[in-house]
Amino acid sequence: MKELINNLRGDKVIWAFIALLALISFMPVYSASSNLAHGANGSGNTVSFLVKHFAHVGIGFLMVYWVHKVPYHYYKALATPLMFIAFATLAFTLFQGKTIGGANASRWIQIPFVGISFQPSTMAFMILMIYVSRYLSKKREVEDTFQQSLINLWLPVFAILALILPANFSTTALIFSMVLMLVFVGKYPVKYIGIILGAGIIFLTFFILLAKAFPDAFPNRVDTWISRVENFTSDKPDEDVYQIEKAKIAIATGGIYGLGPGKSVQKNFLPQSSSDFIYAIIVEEHGLIGAILILSLYLILFIRFLIASHKANTLFGKLLVVGLGFPIVFQALINMGVAVELLPVTGQTLPLISSGGSSIWMTCISLGIILSVTKKEEEIAQELAEKEQREEALQRLIDREINGETEEILETTKQYTNEEVEKSYAVEDHSDNPMKAVIGK
């Protein structure tokens, strides 16, 4: 285990928070899964849901490890090809006309030969943020006009949003707001951001009017999210009132300390208790203390993302941390806001805690890319430290050689006494005549 931890690169605090949130998730998922296990189509076995969640989290950790090993600048080259993959999967998902239990499920796609379903919108969200980060970092090198940015930046953005909007308004709104936040951080002109925001509002209004005029031309998910927004703003009763009421009862029942792990009552009545409304179950079982703890973990993770973005040595790295890290925290805040009725029901999960494969995996891939950015900064710091160590070792070697030569000279000098030195430098020659042998012959 120690060797495995030593092989992990990147921000160790982010690694710790990933592990902590994943560990926290097991208890509420296991507790809330009883609603599904004992439901109409359930087998009554809650352990299977725990094993499934464990598999999702385990695969997610492997994804984090593999992705963080890849140098993050590779994603700059992959951004455009990945956008085409996002377009293709979203288009296929939207027009496949799939239903689950008689309800429209155009947000999901089935992987052939595997039997695993996932939401392409979560993958498209991540790819789009990489693409926008690439564009903004490239724009610093080659300045684009507003007309050029409409084609190079906003046309792909609105194409992705248009494919997600009919089936999932909340994800569309989250993506659009996060893109606007990212381009603002990337110093895209504010007046142009205002124009794009106005265009987005006009497009959304036109789409709603079109959906109301031709209801048969759109999937029934459009009517669902339109009615949710209308009922939330007008306080009209609808089917979501039942979910919100049960969530508020769960939160109120929790009190300060909660009912205790696994002792939730509303999990048996609250739909999506292990995913969309898992925060309400956490508060019911662990009280206000648990609620504040979960909120604090996401806020501290947000601060850590800010630090990592500030330390990144390239603009692309900074934007990647902002574009991939901030949506994780904002999605968590939206999930909590829905549970306390600050926001309409959106279907956004609690990252790394809610059950579900695609949401966990896409979050883990995003965190892996963020760790890759922090790993690069760590590698640079390590190289500088090693360079300083090499310079210090070389300097010590030079000093030792110089000191050694000086001592050798001093030792040689000490071998001569003052008398010998005076004698060697005397003018008078007291030695035998060197020609004596010759003279004798």
TrEMBL record:
Enzyme Commission number, as recorded: 2.4.99.28
The protein's enzyme class: transferase
PANTHER family cross-referenced by the UniProt entry: CELL CYCLE PROTEIN, PEPTIDOGLYCAN GLYCOSYLTRANSFERASE FTSW-RELATED
Assigned keywords, A-Z: Cell shape, Coiled coil, Glycosyltransferase, Membrane, Peptidoglycan synthesis, Transferase, Transmembrane, Transmembrane helix
KW Membrane (keyword) present: yes
InterPro entries named among the record's database cross-references: FtsW/RodA (IPR001182)
Reactions listed under catalytic activity: [GlcNAc-(1->4)-Mur2Ac(oyl-L-Ala-gamma-D-Glu-L-Lys-D-Ala-D-Ala)](n)-di-trans,octa-cis-undecaprenyl diphosphate + beta-D-GlcNAc-(1->4)-Mur2Ac(oyl-L-Ala-gamma-D-Glu-L-Lys-D-Ala-D-Ala)-di-trans,octa-cis-undecaprenyl diphosphate = [GlcNAc-(1->4)-Mur2Ac(oyl-L-Ala-gamma-D-Glu-L-Lys-D-Ala-D-Ala)](n+1)-di-trans,octa-cis-undecaprenyl diphosphate + di-trans,octa-cis-undecaprenyl diphosphate + H(+)
Assigned protein family: Belongs to the SEDS family. FtsW subfamily.
Protein name: Probable peptidoglycan glycosyltransferase FtsW
Membrane-spanning parts: 13-37, 49-68, 74-95, 107-133, 153-185, 192-211, 287-307, 319-340, 352-373
Any single Pfam family the record assigns to this protein: FTSW_RODA_SPOVE
Main location: membrane
Bilayer topology annotation: Multi-pass membrane protein
Record's subcellular location: Membrane
Coiled coil stretches, renumbered: 373-400
Lineage: Bacteria, Pseudomonadati, Bacteroidota, Flavobacteriia, Flavobacteriales
